[in-house]
Structures are given as structure tokens and as C-alpha cells.
Design a protein that fits this description.
eight-stranded parallel beta sheet, two-stranded antiparallel ribbon, binds ligand 7PJ, 278 residues, globular
């Protein structure tokens, strides 16, 4: 499987590691440590050294209950970081839902638009269609402010699948080529702990679709709920989850802990390469 992202053909025959670069003072899992532009750039460079294939730059926190960010604020946070990190030649993704940020980020050198709202905000679909960036469409029930209330599905896998295929269809009708689209079941976005693990367990159900699958579960609270650890102590849970997602067909894993995830993938790939074929 390949993913076409602004002129780059990303080869997903081995799962890619997307490293998270937060430029948000209220981001839950690194507590705003990378809030400033220079810090975010330095963090991105460090993740590249650790073996990140893609950097995902985000200026809006989507944790439950996080404050909304204006377009101007998001642009100020994200664009300088995109410009600086794109200069390294790295594949750059921007975690945004806003039409203006989509347009400016691609102009500044971004290759991927990663939208947890699946291009449903006003103008976002059109803005994305006017670029040639890769697009990640994620499932969320509700909004970041409300998503953990009134969680209800009659058939989780089918409902998430139907939503993702519907959004992929809308994207294609707007002029976004199928080869540019990637799907994400949205671990942690409007799901219970059990539902998040049902999705993870059935990553292969989504991987049979004709789109690459991205999975993001790094440091999320559902991992914490299982291992009984707080956010600063979820490295092993996160790496284990990323490895499971990759083994069940995810083409891209979105992680904070790039070096540790890279080690896990190396052990997996080394083992696969020694497996007797018959
Ligand atoms: C995800 C994301 C995810 C995609 C965030 C966090 C919350 N984008 N952005 N998938 N999560 N595609 O990292 O805890 O799961 S922000």
C-alpha cells in the first residue's frame, strides 16, 4: 500500500512511525513542555533523529474539555514550526480542522493534513481539495468537549466504518484522489475503554479497506485505565499498543515515544525476516 502526500509516495509495506510535535500550552501528555516555537522545532528534530518517518505538528489540543483555539492563534503556533521542519526534508503532517490552517500549512510545506474532525468544519473539505496533500480522516463521536458523554453505538465497528467510508466518499467527490486518503478509527475519541480496545483488536477489519489505516493511542487514558498508570508512565503500554496496531494492519502509528516504538518495530521486523516460510 502507498499513500500519496503532496508529491511523495509513502511506502507503507513496513508501518511508518509518525512522531507527535505539540505546539499547545495545554496538551495533556507533555504538559506544554513544547509550547514555544523553538522548543517545538527542537523536539521535531529530536524525533527525526529517533527514527520518525513523519512529524505530526498540532496547535490545537483535542483532549476532552480543552479550550478552543482561534484560527489566528493556531496559525501562529503551527506555521513557523512547519516551515522550519519542512526544510529538513522530513514528511510533515499538520493536525488541524480549520480551512485557513489547512491552506497555510500546505503553503508552508506540509505534506499531510491530519483532521480529527474528518474535514467536517466549514470550508475544510474545499481547502483540502485545493491542495495535493495526503489527508487523514478520523472518526470521532461528538466533539472534543462532549465526546466522552452519552457514548452510544449499536454496532461499533460497522458504525465507525460507515462514517469513515462516507467521509472518504465526500472527500473524493470534492476532488481528493483515493490515493491521498488515509483513515483512522479514532482511538479515544468518543469511545469507552472497552470500545477502544475492540477497535484496536479489530484493526485488521479496517485494514482490509482500500485505504491506509493510521492509529493513534500513545499515552491515552484507555491505556492508563488498563495498566493503572498516569500519563507520564504509559511508555510500555503505548509501545505495546502501537506494536499490536501495526501487527494488525495499521500503516502508520502516531506516537510520542518514537525511539522506543522504533526499537519495538526493529525487533518485530528482525523476527519476521527469520520466520520460516513453510
Ligand atoms: C489522534 C490524532 C489520533 C489522529 C490526536 C492525543 C490526542 N490524530 N490527534 N489520530 N489523537 N489521526 O494525542 O492524545 O488518534 S490528539
Amino acid at each position: 500500500m502507498k499513500w500519496l502526500c503532496a508529491g511523495r509516495q509513502l511506502d507503507l509495506s513496513e508501518p511508518l512511525i509518525m512522531g507527535i510535535v505539540n505546539v499547545t500550552p495545554d496538551s495533556f501528555s507533555d504538559g506544554g513542555r513544547y509550547a514555544g516555537t523553538p522548543e517545538a522545532i527542537a523536539h521535531g528534530l529530536e524525533l527525526l533523529e529517533q527514527g520518525a518517518d513523519i512529524l505530526d505538528i498540532g496547535g490545537e489540543s483535542t483532549r476532552p474539555g480543552a479550550a478552543e483555539v482561534t484560527e489566528q492563534e493556531e496559525l501562529e503556533r503551527v506555521i513557523p514550526v512547519v516551515e522550519a521542519l519542512a526544510k529538513t526534508g522530513a514528511v510533515i503532517s499538520v493536525d488541524t480542522s480549520k480551512a485557513g490552517v489547512i491552506r497555510e500549512a500546505v503553503k508552508a510545506g506540509a505534506h499531510i493534513i491530519n483532521d480529527v474532525r474528518a474535514l467536517q468544519e466549514p470550508g475544510a473539505l474545499e481547502a483540502a481539495a485545493q491542495t495535493n496533500a495526503g489527508i487523514c480522516l478520523m472518526h470521532m463521536q461528538g466533539t472534543p468537549a462532549t465526546m466522552q458523554k452519552n457514548i452510544a453505538y449499536s454496532d461499533l465497528l460497522q458504525e465507525v466504518e460507515r462514517f469513515l467510508l462516507d467521509r472518504a466518499q465526500c472527500a473524493q467527490s470534492a476532488g481528493i484522489a483515493r490515493e491521498r486518503i488515509c483513515l483512522d478509527y479514532g482511538f479515544g475519541f468518543g469511545k469507552t475503554v472497552d470500545q477502544n480496545f475492540e477497535l484496536l483488536a479489530n484493526t485488521d477489519y479496517f485494514a482490509r479497506l482500500p485505504y491506509p489505516i493510521l492509529v493513534g493511542l500513545s499515552r491515552k487514558s484507555s491505556l492508563g485505565a488498563v495498566v493503572g498508570r498516569d500519563v507520564s508512565d504509559r511508555l510500555i503500554a503505548s509501545v505495546t499498543g502501537a506494536l499490536i496496531a501495526a501487527q494488525r494492519g495499521a500503516g502508520i502509528v502516531r506516537v510520542h515515544d518514537v525511539a522506543a516504538t522504533r526499537d519495538a518495530f526493529k525487533i518485530w521486523h528482525m523476527t519476521v525476516s527469520k520466520t520460516h516460510k513453510d
